[in-house]
Design goal:
This protein has helices at residues 6-33, 44-99, 105-126, 179-184, 283-295, 301-361, 365-390, 394-397, and strands at residues 147-150, 153-156, 164-168, 171-174, 186-187, 193-197, 206-212, 223-227, 232-236, 242-247, 253-256, 259-264, 272-277, 280-281. It is an alpha+beta fold and 399 residues long. It folds into 2 domains: 35-191 and 279-362, f41 fragment of flagellin, N-terminal domain, CATH 1.20.1330; 194-277. Strands 6-13-8-9-10 form a 5-stranded antiparallel sheet. Strand 9 (232-236) and strand 10 (242-247) form a beta hairpin. Helix 1 packs antiparallel against helix 7 (365-390) and helix 2 (44-99) runs antiparallel to helix 3 (105-126). The radius of gyration is 41 Å and the shape is elongated.
């Protein structure tokens, strides 16, 4: 037999009203915040999922900031290299002018003054700061200017590292290249071969042209053409072994080991010329050598030939440096294109994440308002029932 007391009926009614009020308060909070998940207890599983998705969205934002920094630095690299190319273009024009036979020593020294100023401008460009407290061409050691004048030329204080920055999930973009790759490791000659005359030559022989005629026959080694009396010459390999002989005729190609070398002028007995694989040289050393040649004062035909050989060599190396800057700009352009792809990927991922988050966290107003009205009616009914119950008493049945 179940006993029903007045206290029990009061407690049941109060519990019902409190439950309705709590439900109504929860719906009011959801309507006010436009979110159906305000605390973890609302949906523990959904709340855990939301935390993970929020982290993924925050990571995309971080990738976006990384991308902005890299894009800024790569754009600055593009501008710097464009200016550097203009400088080398001007130096190339001046060097061609200095190579003409109508130029006097005074004229060449005047040209050297302008080239010296252009060289200093190029050094300033190599120490460009990115506007964020870092230097563009320092690699990862970019807290200080990477290049500085020294007794031996220009010294590099950065490192060889090119940063790889994550700009989208598992997608990386390369930062600006270290200065060692941009300004120091520039191929000489034509990029594959280089040739030059010995400084001790006493004749008027000058390097005309050099080409690789048979890649299969060339072993990649360095060779030397030695002139004797009467224009006879011997071609020797790096070990000193003779690989060819002949009699020199001005402008006629000397062919050996898959290579072809043309010399103009009149080499003297004992003069030597070298040809072999291209090496690397920093652009500042090339310009310093050019300045040395321009400021020299040749008095003999041999000294004039040596000056012309130095100017011709500088022209070839400057041309290679211009191409090197163009290649570096192309590499930076490819990275900028990769950043555009990363932006598209981040945008697509963000839409997916935000859609998923909205489905879990955001409130369906139509459904929430409907439930709010139902809960409000239920609460009013419970309050009315409680009011009616207050008027009743078991004592009324005993009268």
């Amino acid at each position: 037999m179940t006993r029903i007391s007045t206290g029990m009926r009061y407690q049941q009614s109060l519990t019902s009203m409190q439950t309705r009020q709590a439900s109504l308060a929860k719906l009011q909070q959801q309507l006010a915040t436009a979110m159906k998940l305000n605390t973890g207890k609302d949906d523990p599983v959904g709340a855990g999922t939301v935390v993970g998705l929020d982290r993924a969205v925050a990571e995309l934002e971080r990738f976006g900031k990384n991308s902005d920094v890299v894009r800024h630095r790569l754009s600055m690299q593009e501008n710097v290299l464009s200016q550097a190319g203009d400088i080398l273009g001007r130096i190339n024009v001046l060097t061609i002018q200095a190579s003409t036979g109508t130029m006097s020593d005074s004229d060449r020294k005047t040209i050297a003054t302008e080239i010296r100023s252009l060289r200093d401008g190029l050094l300033d460009l190599s120490n460009t700061a990115d506007g964020m407290g870092r230097f563009l061409f320092g690699g990862t050691q970019d807290g200080d200017p990477p290049f500085a004048r020294s007794g031996a030329g220009v010294a590099y204080g950065g490192d060889q590292t090119q940063r790889q920055v994550e700009v989208a999930p598992q997608m990386f973009a390369a930062d600006a290249k270290p200065g060692s790759e941009v300004f120091l490791r520039v191929r000489t000659g034509n990029g594959r071969l280089d040739a030059g005359a010995a400084l001790a030559n006493t004749g008027t022989g000058q390097i005309g042209s050099f080409t690789l005629t048979d890649a299969a026959a060339w072993d990649g080694g360095r060779y030397q053409v030695e002139f004797g009396a009467g224009g006879d010459y011997i071609v020797r390999d790096a070990g000193g072994g003779a690989v060819g002989t002949g009699t020199y005729k001005a402008g006629e190609a000397i062919v050996f080991a898959g290579l072809q070398l043309t010399i103009t002028g009149s080499p003297a007995a004992g003069d030597t010329f070298q040809i072999g694989p291209s090496e690397t040289r920093d652009v500042f050393a090339t310009l310093d050598g050019l300045l040395q040649a321009l400021t020299s004062t040749p008095t003999t035909t041999a000294e004039r030939a040596a000056q012309q050989n130095a100017l011709s060599s500088a022209l070839r190396d400057i041309s290679m440096a211009e191409n090197h800057f163009i290649d570096t700009r192309a590499s930076g352009g490819a990275q900028l294109a990769a950043l555009d792809q990363a932006t598209e990927l981040r945008s697509a991922l963000d839409v997916t994440l935000q859609t998923t988050l909205s489905g879990i966290r955001d409130l369906d107003y139509v459904d929430a308002i409907g439930r709010f009205n139902l809960e409000k009616i239920a609460l009013e009914a419970a309050q009315l029932s409680f009011t009616q119950m207050q008027r009743l008493s078991l004592f009324d049945l005993m009268r």
